[in-house]
Amino acid sequence: MHKHCFNKILEWLLGNKDNPFEYTHHAVLLVAVVLYAYAAFLNYYLDVANIYNIYLQAAISLLVLIIWYLSRWKNQFRMMRFVFISVILLVSMPANWIGNGGSDGPTYIMIFGSLIYLSVSFKDLGVYRRIGQCYCILIPIPLIFIEQHYPELIFRYGTETQKQIDLMITFIIIGLFLIFMMESLATRFRLEKAKAEQLSEQLRALSEEDSLTGLYNRRILDKEYSSWKNQGRVFSLALLDLDHFKKLNDQWGHSYGDEVLVIFSALLKDIAIQNEGVAIRLGGEEFVLLLPLSSDITHQKLIQLAKRLSNTPLKHGPVSFSAGVAQDMETEGQYDLLKRADNLMYLAKENGRNLICK
Ligand SMILES: Nc1nc2c(ncn2[C@@H]2O[C@H](COP(=O)(O)OP(=O)(O)OP(=O)(O)O)[C@@H](O)[C@H]2O)c(=O)[nH]1
Question: For ligand 1, is residue 254 a contact (CB within 6 Å)?
Answer without folding.
Answer: yes
